[in-house]
Specification:
Elements lengths: L1 H8 L5 H40 L5 H7 L2 H5 L2 H9 L8 H31 L11 H24 L3 H8 L3 H7 L1 H15 L8 E4 L4 E8 L3 E6 L4 E5 L2 H4 L3 E2 L1 H6 L2 E9 L9 H8 L5 H17 L15 H15 L10 E4 L7 E9 L4 H18 L13 H9 L10
Antiparallel strand pairs: 1-2, 1-5, 2-3, 3-4, 6-8, 7-8
Helix pairs in contact: 1-2, 2-5, 3-6, 5-6, 6-7, 7-8
């Protein structure tokens, strides 16, 4: 300022004009220095750093570059220059220093925010991030850093020590707990979810209360994001996964098998003992030929040994069409390429209902992918629906309008009166 003032004095200017002109020139000079320094930092220094980062073997520094940590650091340079030139303006010195320090603190918070994001990105490159996500903890650190930053900014502007403001926070603790209630609940929930390994990114979860049925794509401090199968996104509060129940299908996905549990409803009126013709027919079925021969021999030996009179089918032991069909289904599943033979496999009868006799298939596919699982399940039941009549069995279904129409259209027996 003194140099510029002495330089302008050679022009014999009015004192007021001389004062304002020297101030304007000084401000322009400082602004020019800031622009040049900023240009050098961004166009030269940052480019050199970018070149070094892109041409080394490490990946973590690429995360810092992607999050623009180095770019935001460059904003410190103009603020430091302005702060150092604050003594040039005696009257505005304190105001300029406070403004420069406030700017430096804000830029520092932005740099820390980007740095924390980069740390989270680096952590996600490791396999452990799927089981122990740290995004929630990063967000807690951000809240603490931003809160402390705001306190320091306010303390700087009012010219008081930050300790004085921090001592007053105790009185505001109740208000802060109310404001950050969801964050505090989310923090506690995040710790429990992580420590108990309840949910991971990539897990398929179902939570009907929130309409969630799909893959977990993100776990943050306050919410868990679930991408449903229709590609919509459901946001679930983190603490809801602790307080409410949900289904995690990870166990199924890692087991190598997905359960098939579905029943065929057999019309009870179609269940009967096997006739000789039926037995001969069953012997020609690939899966049943050996079973029928062994079973027929076993039954004949039992009946002969116990002197059973087989003139009445009620006496002794005999094959039934439902029993043979159940054995056939079991053998069919054992030979099916889509069924996991290392897991539970059974064909069982459930309690009869008004819809018939449920014959339940309980097995596991050997592929957990949804489309493949559905294809295997459909393939099995397509076959069973088609083959059941070959055993003299009828599958039950409630009468439809077409059934009633067919019944009404049947010709009446002579002498029968319609109503």
């Amino acid at each position: 300022m003194d140099f510029i003032s002495n330089w302008l004095s050679d022009y014999n200017l009015n004192s007021t004009v001389h004062k304002y002109l020297s101030t304007i020139i000084t401000i322009l000079f400082i602004a020019m220095i800031c622009i040049i320094a900023n240009f050098i930092t961004k166009k030269i220094v940052i480019r050199i750093i970018t070149h070094i980062v892109n041409n080394n073997k490490y990946q973590w520094d690429n995360m810092l570059l992607d999050r623009k940590v180095f770019h935001k650091l460059s904003h410190f340079v103009p603020a430091i220059i302005i702060y150092n030139f604050s003594t040039t303006f005696d009257y505005f010195k304190d105001l300029i220093e406070k403004g420069a320090i406030t700017y430096l603190i804000i830029v520092g918070l932005l740099v820390l925010n980007s740095l924390l994001n980069a740390i989270n990105d680096i952590y996600q490159t490791y396999e452990i991030s799927k089981t122990r996500p740290m995004k929630g903890y990063i967000q807690v650190v951000k809240i603490i850093v931003i809160t402390l930053g705001i306190i320091v900014v306010i303390a700087n502007l009012i010219g008081e020590s930050p300790v004085i403001l921090l001592s007053g926070i105790g009185a505001l603790s109740a208000v802060l707990m109310l404001v950050f209630k969801d964050s505090l609940l989310g923090l506690v929930a995040g710790i429990q979810l992580s420590s108990n390994d309840m949910v991971r990114v990539g897990d398929w979860i179902q939570m009907p209360k929130y309409g969630a049925d799909g893959d977990v794509i993100d776990i943050s401090l306050n919410t868990v994001q679930v991408q449903n199968w229709d590609k919509t996104i459901t946001m679930i509060p983190s603490y809801a996964l602790i307080s409410d129940s949900f289904i995690n299908w990870r166990g199924m996905q890692t087991s190598g098998g997905r359960r098939i549990k579905r029943s065929l409803f057999i019309d009870k009126n179609s269940i009967s003992f096997c006739t000789d013709e039926m037995i001969e027919k069953f012997k020609s079925i690939h899966y049943l030929s050996e079973y029928i021969l062994n079973r027929e021999s076993e039954i004949a030996e039992y009946n002969t040994k116990n002197g059973i009179n087989r003139s009445n089918p009620v006496n002794g032991r005999a094959l039934t069409n439902i029993g043979v069909f159940r054995v056939y289904v079991n053998y069919y599943l054992q030979k099916h390429s889509g069924i996991n033979q290392e897991m539970t496999l059974m064909v069982r009868q459930l309690a009869p209902t008004e819809h018939g006799l449920p014959l339940e298939i309980y097995a596991f596919s050997n592929d957990v992918r949804w489309a493949v699982y559905e294809s295997v399940q459909a393939d099995i039941f397509d076959h069973l629906f088609a083959v059941a009549p070959e055993f003299g069995l009828r599958l039950f279904q409630s009468p439809s309008g077409n059934d009633l129409r067919t019944m009404l259209d049947e010709p009446r027996v002579d002498g029968e009166r319609g109503h």
